[in-house]
Amino acid sequence: MALELSLEGQPGAAAAVPPFDPEGDGISRLDAATVQEADAGGPALSRIIFGDAPAPEVARQWRMQGFTLADVDVSDAPGVTPFGAGLAQINGGPCAVLAAAQAFMLRRLLFSGDDPAGPPMPLPTWLDEAAAGGGSLLPSETEAGEALLRGLADALVACATTPSAAAMAAAGGGATLAPTPCQVVLAVPTAAMLEESWMQDERGANPELLGALVAHAARPTTWHATLEALRARRHGLASPLGALGFLVSALLTRGVGRFSEERDDPSQPLLDPQFGHCSQEVLNLLLLGVGVSNVFDGSRDLGGGFMLRGVPLRPPVGLLSELEALRYLQVGSFFKQPVHPIWVVASESHYSILFALTTRVQAVGARAALEERLLAAFSELDQEGNGFVSGEHLGTLVAALPQWQAPPLDKLRTQLDPEGTSLILWDHFQRIMMPLHPEAATLPAESAAPAASLELYHYNGLGARGHENKRALRKLLVEPAKRPVGPAPQGLASIIATRWKDALVTHEGPPPSIN
Q: What residue stretches are annotated with the EF-hand domain (predicted)?
């Protein structure tokens, strides 16, 4: 279902026309000199994205994926909720771009406010009906399409204006930095470009295609101008080049040089050369506006000038990962506790979406989020998971938790190790440190009573034969701390349990697919 949107009555339609407008459509464009100097056109950009020798299937996948709405499932299959705002993924590969777009689209549909980091506010009648048990989430096609355009504008403006990862790490988590000037590069193809026969050839050389996208890129300088540029190129977004064009837009908007500096290893291509999956840096760039390589909170200095950079700030939408359920990594509290209750769900090979209709789900587990941050710092020194660390590391441990108002080290050491064993036990550390965080006094006493049940929704936009429920919205009942003793949960339930500890997850019908 292609997105057909009217320009009439839309906010921002009267935005000022930028000064350099050679095509007379209100959108400023990059000139040839800027393109040549950007180190992002043609072969250079192709190597950064695809590497030197990508599999032919990878290029094909990325030339067949646009932003289109999936058909509404009206099959009455068990556990399926009719959903009018799901993006359709055709093949594997571009799932990170589609998932990020879906997350920001849902943020616009479910919560109002032009500021992506602003306070959540529930929106319109169809949402009220759904929240009251109406059984469907059916915005109009126009509403869904407009939410997509605004969500994409949010993501691109964040890429343009978010301070560098290095600047945020140097300033510390509590500092407020002035954003960089807004300079969006929109490399989604124009309607005229789509008419060119070579643009429609799936076998066309990537350097030629990328060079053309850059040469015809728009350059809006405000959020409203970015929205208008996206609206003007909505046919390009819905075209088979939509996802690739948006990936190029995010990369060039951030700036190839700045993006490379934020990555742990800029020598690696952004797409897996065999399967076409996006790197973690690409997903982080789309969700955070910063191209960091990791999912933990903040940065970790490994010494010798080598810094691992993670999530620098609380994002508008979050991320949960199956790799955490498998104990390969730990997602930080910033991604687990985003501003809005929307999460990209990362399996080992795919991305899907988890969300709630109310911010009430965020209140549940706030204390647990602080405990996770304590545990993350403690685990850095307790690599083997013994449940204790040497007392000589107490200074390092406290330094890793600057938001905690710890007493002088000697006093804290006496509280943590009154018997002088030179060991700091995790249980003692957690009990002593929790009340020392400024937010601890305002948190609900979650252990005093069973946590409330939560309603969540899961959507996987990748269609596949033999998986009727894959491209469908599934409603879940999540009961934190209610999972009975027994086998560990699998699939989506195991991922949800990384956010809501020991959660019992129930649903109608077969288990939702995360692959």
A: 369-404
